[in-house]
């Protein structure tokens, strides 16, 4: 039998972990988008080739 305060602490920890994971994902997505924009500015031929596939 687990202690109630321990279980609530675990709930808070898991919630914080999921929150930080979503934050990290959005941060990484924004960083990737800004990097892609910078690549579009510096290398137009590379961006056209990437868009064309």
Automatic annotation (TrEMBL):
Q: Source organism's superkingdom?
A: Eukaryota
Identification of the protein by name: Uncharacterized protein
- Tell me what organism the protein belongs to: Nymphaea colorata (pocket water lily)
Ranked from the top, the taxonomy reads: Eukaryota, Viridiplantae, Streptophyta, Embryophyta, Tracheophyta
